[in-house]
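Project channel, design review

CF: Before we commit to the Sulfurospirillum tamanense constructs, I'd like one complete example in the thread so the newer folks can see what an input/output pair looks like. Taking Heme chaperone HemW.
RD: sounds good, go ahead.
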Amino acid sequence: MLLYLHVPFCQTKCHYCSFHSYIQHNSLKEAYIKAVMVQFQNEAKHFNLAPASLSSFFIGGGTPSTLTPAQYAPLFEIISPYLHPEAEISTEANPNTANRSWIEGMIALGVNRMSFGVQSFHQDKLAFLGRNHTNDEACRAIETAASLGVNSVSIDLMYGTAMDTKTSLKKELDFAFALPISHLSAYALTLEEGTPFYNRTETLNPSEPLARWFAKAITHRGFKQYEISNFGTVFCQHNLGYWEHRRYIGLGCGAVGYDGTARLYPSQEIHTYLKKPATQRREVLSPQEIITEKIFLGLRSHIGVAMGLLTPEQQARASLLEKEKKVFFSNDRVYNCDYFLSDELALFIL
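CF: and here is what came back for Heme chaperone HemW:
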């Protein structure tokens, strides 16, 4: 079982960001954690949660590092009995808000994995993206986390912007791999509706050869690609749980949960959520919808797809792809040979 907490608070809104977040409700942080605690207690009953049954806890956002460890502490207190002794406990963080005392405080709560939203090591590109940290702050946060004993340090890098070339992206990787990281998430810039970048195609460099080169350059540095956007020597167990289609609890406004038969949506509007944190919209999935999700998720990661999920006709189409060396078979599972074709391969099989 997985647990996710969405922290919807940010200092500023990045130009590309479509995630559910607020920059004007910082006074609501303590009330928000109290509401999350109410929701968690309700979810523990709904999922019949047993002690030590949570294999991972991931704090995402928004910007989780805008809350102090002391503000998180009451939530950790009620969640702790349900965390497996070897649970992966992750938090995202922005380099400019994750100072030494914040990192020390989160480690004291049990956090053993940190993911820093670096996006770029080039100052001009950071300004272009609307990021509010510097290269030095990013390097300092990463080195501090590693020096304090965080088991796995991850960073996000963004590519596919109009500023990107092989030369500039190589310099990004030179910076990244000079730091004590064990995981890297590489995201292509996409133009999301409602963001400042939406409809501004001049912000993009949609070159597929450049994207493929960037992914290969990361693997040549010793990181294995285990999903479209994720590479590492230590994999994120929480994300693997999503791709394995395991059940998960989603806490907070803007989060999503999954109980094995339905997706669960708390209110996305923060004031409504604060009033009714235990109220959720339920979207029941049909057996075929669940199989379709497993195929899409399996082919976009190294999880693969069980042959038993496929109809005889779908197995025949998978065999055609295997002959074309687009997929390969192993232990009665289908695995993707080219993550850049994940959706196309899934649609062909379906």
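RD: helpful, thanks. Residues 286-350 form one domain.
CF: The chain is about 35% helix and 25% strand.
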